[in-house]
Design brief:
The protein is an alpha/beta fold. Among the domains are: 122 residues, Luciferase, domain 3, CATH 2.30.38.10; 100 residues, ANL, C-terminal domain (GMP Synthetase, Chain A, domain 3), CATH 3.30.300. It contains 14 helices and 28 strands. It has a 9-stranded mixed beta sheet with strand order 3-2-11-10-12-13-14-15-16, sandwiched between helices. The protein has a 6-stranded mixed beta sheet with strand order 6-4-5-7-8-19. A 4-stranded antiparallel beta sheet has the order 17-18-22-23. The termini are far apart.
Length: 490
């Protein structure tokens, strides 16, 4: 067992693996461990000159790029915490997060935001004249991620784990000194956490600045990628590539494929299992808060179709509206607790929100679901997204899965809109595949073959805009509020 300060990772790997062995690449921009270590030191000296020190936060609003990692390791070198946000946030939203984070420094890619906020550019400190060795300081929190959650109001999720990790612990199929591919935005928790943990173990990271399905296959083949994480939106785009591409590309190097972040339609899961084999496909349900996750591989999924797995190092409780525990098979709010959790000592804290934490340490993300007799968890939907129509509960994810089976549907989001008769009606928002032009009646008829009648969309609208972000997340609350506001104006 060797505890490693995260600020030491680049130098440690340069010494162990060789300075010239490549550590990172995004497109044509590739750097070795030695160059990463030097850039980390230069940037750390530059940040220290601004007063960045232990316990501070530094906000990063950057796309996937090598500079992102140079800055995270530099921030950890000084004992500070990276607070990561989307580089696409407008100034007003970013300002709301900055008020919560109270950072010592802000680094952004957008020149307009640099001017508006007095923020630092992405290349800040890269060419700083000082690169003398620095002793790493342990940051009390290794990350502070941001989330709008289901409410759309920003919050900061501050991890209580310090920026120190055991390099002997490698879960989730992580290779040592291998190659991983990250196609997802680093402002989301799983890609942020996994890329940095992989680097702790000497694994090189191939990053994608923007996801492209065919390029994904090319990169896996070219760099003999062993480990990757995806979201269902990406998996859908890959699955819908021509069959000849699936057959032509060599995917034999892939040992582990994780998917997270959103529900996956059963047909899509089956495609990946058939294509790569069930033992290589893994699913995780959890959150940035880190109080517990569930996991399962494709072999288990075939025996428990639709499940997101059993708790990994934790336990699950399903509670009804009255607060009492429900038996297997009954839908209620999902509460989880990690093994060894001590009341009063959570794994995180929110800035800007309150947790759904019970006195005994069980916590909830606000999702509804149920467990089977074997303890496997099934997700129904978010508590706040539940549609109550004519007294019946309708879970949007189930309706979305039915619409997504249609070959001309690229994305689908389902929300509930006010209805004077039903209370709420099911409304579908659909982004068609490029070149496709499905009719609303056609999609409703298609869904009718898969859903009971009361769950069918009463109305469908079409859009050319993406409905989910790069990590597969959807803001149903915002989509719903926008449409209700438009209805009130008419």
């Amino acid at each position: 067992m060797a505890e490693v300060l995260l600020g030491d990772v680049p130098e440690r790997n340069a010494d162990r693996l060789g300075a010239d062995r490549w550590a990172l690449r995004h497109g044509d921009d590739a750097i070795g461990w030695g160059e990463l270590a030097e850039r980390t030191l230069r940037r750390a000296h530059a940040l220290a000159g601004l007063g960045v020190a232990r316990g501070d936060r530094v906000v990063l609003a950057l796309p996937n790029c090598n500079a992102f990692y140079e800055l995270t390791f530099a921030i950890w070198k000084l004992g500070a915490t990276p607070a990561v946000v989307s580089p696409r946030l407008p100034a007003a939203e970013l300002n709301a997060i900055l008020e919560l984070a109270e950072p010592r420094a802000v680094v952004v890619a957008d020149p307009d935001l640099q001017t508006a906020l007095g923020a630092l550019p992405a290349d800040f400190g890269r060419d700083h004249p000082e690169n003398a060795p620095l002793a790493s300081v342990e940051a009390p929190s290794w990350k502070a991620m941001t989330s709008g959650g289901s409410t759309g109001r920003p919050k900061l999720i501050v991890d209580h784990h310090p920026a120190r990790m055991d390099d002997a612990v490698r879960g989730l199929g992580m290779p040592r000194d291998g190659v991983m591919l990250n196609p997802a935005p680093l402002y989301h928790n799983f890609p942020f956490a996994m890329t940095h943990m992989m680097m702790l173990h000497g694994t090189s990271v191939v990053g994608m600045a923007r996801f492209d399905a065919e390029e994904f296959l090319t990169l896996v083949e070219r760099y003999r990628v062993q480990w990757v994480s995806l979201v269902p939106t990406m998996m859908n785009r890959i699955a819908r590539l021509p069959d000849e591409l699936h057959k032509a590309r060599d995917m034999s190097s892939l040992e582990t494929v994780w998917h997270t972040a959103a529900p996956i339609p059963p047909w899509l899961k089956e495609f990946w299992i058939d294509w790569l084999g069930p033992e290589r496909i893994w699913e995780m349900y959890g959150g940035t808060e880190g109080f517990c996750t569930t996991q399962l591989n494709g072999v288990e999924w075939l025996e428990h179709r639709g499940s997101v797995g059993r708790p990994a190092g934790g336990e699950i409780l399903i509670l009804g509206d009255d607060g009492n525990a429900l038996p297997p098979g009954e839908v209620g709010e999902i509460y989880m607790r990690r093994v060894g959790a001590e009341p009063g000592k959570p794994s995180y804290h929110y800035v800007g929100s309150d947790s759904r934490r019970l006195p005994d340490g069980f916590e909830s993300f606000g999702d509804y679901g149920w467990v089977d007799e074997d303890g496997y968890l099934y997700i129904a939907d978010r508590r706040t997204d539940l549609i109550l129509s004519a007294g019946r509960n309708i879970y949007p994810a189930e309706v979305e899965a039915a619409l997504l089976e249609h070959p001309e549907v690229a994305e689908a989001i389902v929300i509930g809109l006010p209805d004077p008769d039903l209370g709420a009606r099911v409304h579908g928002i659909v982004k068609p595949e490029d070149g496709a032009n499905p009719a609303a009646d056609e999609l409703i008829a298609f869904a009718k073959e898969r859903l009971v009648s009361y769950k069918l969309p009463r109305t469908i609208e079409f859009t050319s805009e993406p409905l989910r972000d790069e990590a597969g997340k959807a803001r149903r609350s915002r989509l719903r509020d926008d449409r209700i506001a438009a209805m009130e104006k008419t």
